[in-house]
User: Fold this.
Amino acid sequence: MAVREGAWDCPYCGATRNRGPEKFCGGCGSPRGPEVKFYLPEDARVVDEAGELEKARSGPDWTCGFCSGDNKGWNGFCTGCGSARDAGAARKVVQHLGQAPSSAEEAARAAGPGQPETPEVGSPAEAPKKPRNKACGLCLAGCGVLLVLLALLAGFLSCTRSVQLDVVGAHWERLISIQKEVTVREQAWADQLPSGARELSRSQEVRSHRQVQIGSETRTRTVQREVQDGTERVKVGSRDLGNGYFEDVYEDRPTYRTVQEEESWQEPVYRQEPVYATRITYDIERWKEVRQARASGEDTRPEWPELRLEPGEREGPRTEKYVLKLRSPDGKTMEHEIQDAATFQAFQVGRPCPARLNRLGVITELRP
Ligand SMILES: [Zn+2]
Ligand SMILES: [Zn+2]
Assistant:
């Protein structure tokens, strides 16, 4: 444990770095009062001579209770008045963890009122403000430009103009599906058989699979582990010996090394096992479309086709479609589908109707 020579500053003449063990100021000769704080300069001298080391470790200096004389640790009686040390007060031995004070102000702070043993806790340095990320800024600008373009496009498309369109033609078509019950052959699982099914045959078939564990196998893998393989001495601070000297304080810390180990485990092994169920083949009557009744025309007066059902037939779903053929003032023709019959019937071939077109020429509104 290294011992170094500390220093003290004179409160009377301001002289700095008086040698720690020196009892009088090198500048003005004033005695080193009991209020003087020791500190450890960065380039403090290491004490290696045996006699001086012994002095350094002989305990803190003490102040005489009668004449206030400054005495060394090994003095049992005051060198000034001869009083016993029992009546005197020893300087404090202070342990500084972390950085030892390297100036008089730091020493005073470290040995501040009430908490002489408080280790100096380094306050986290305030992080410098990060410059704003340039790439992110560019990205934001790109997004902004894209949004503006999208807005412009939306504005371009939503901007419409009104025109007169001529109805130059029309087309409509109406269909009625005609169904008949026919016998069809189907298959189903026994628990899903529809009512009315006439069973023809049954068989056992694979319906699903399930996982069955049939054993396990041993697998291995290499894992890394931290193992303590010793300790190291780490300097954690210094101790003010109260006599102008400082001693380094060490701590034993564990050291680790990484070892690789084989680790094994049991991995289950599965087999896919088929699950059988009863499959039934059956005949059943189903309504199927057999033909359509159809009507169409080239005007705006649609009609449903006449429905003639034969025995065993029924009416199925109906479908309808209405299309107008239009011509714009610049001679372009276009087709436009109308969704309901009532609207379609309000148009007349040969009559103009007001409309709105967007920039792409698509009809956005059409009135009879
Ligand atoms: Zn002085
Ligand atoms: Zn004395």
